[in-house]
Each structure stands twice: as C-alpha cells, then as structure tokens.
Amino acid sequence: MLAVSNQALCGGGNRNIGFYFRVTFPVGKDGDSYAFKTPTDFGLGGIAKLDGEIVKQETSDIWEGGSSTKLDFTTTLSKENHQLELIGSEGCCDGTTRWSFQVNGGDWLDFTTENLNSFKPQPEPEPEPEVFIIPEPLPERPEPEIRIA
Question: What is the domain range of residue 104?
C-alpha cells in the first residue's frame, strides 16, 4: 500500500477515525518466511492479525512519525492464501502510511498486488508425453513357393 490515509484514500477527515484494513495474498510454497512492516497512524492503538489470529497488539500511539515498528512481525507461512488484517483508531492527524513486506530475507517490497502476486504458486509444468515402442517379434511367415513352369 502506497500513500494510504483516510484523507488520501477516501477524502475523509483527519480526526476520530476507525480503520480496518484486510489484505488477502498468496504464498507460493510451504515454509517461506514473511516479514511485514506496517507503520500505520493508529494514535490510539491497534491490532495486527494474520489468518484471524492476533499477532501484535498495542494500546499506545503506533505512528511515531511513520517509522513505528510496533505492529511489525515475521512469520513462516504455508502454501495457500493468507489474510492480513490491521484494525486501529486515530484521534488526530491521519498520517500517510506505506506498508512493505519481505520474503525469505530478500528485498523489502511495497504492498502492491503485483508484488504480492509475484509469490503465488506456480503451476506445475505438464509432463512431456512419452511414447514407448515395444518391439514385438514379427509372426513367422512361410517361405513363398516358387514355381517354374
């Protein structure tokens, strides 16, 4: 997510805001390590959930000028779709956020559909058709009769 705030995304106000973000994303193989950075402006606290389970919770100001790590976390995921949810509230100012993620210690990537989908499961290649020729002995043929007249 790039430059997301209530004002930027919805044209709304910047005070007394409740937020609910939900992102569903694919994981391409079992055992991949995912790290998430989500410095959202939740001045009154917030919760990070993964697949319905709370992984981080904070009751104090999470913003810290856009550099908070209070809801950041790392986890190992299985090959399937997963759901990340962030829930929080803001009393004032609705700072812009920019989320990012990292897979297996690689580069930090922005939370975009293109980047998230780049880790989706790849289809298994179709096996090449195999043709087996099993030689069988030809049936015995009688010798042709040659007649001279």
Answer: 6-117
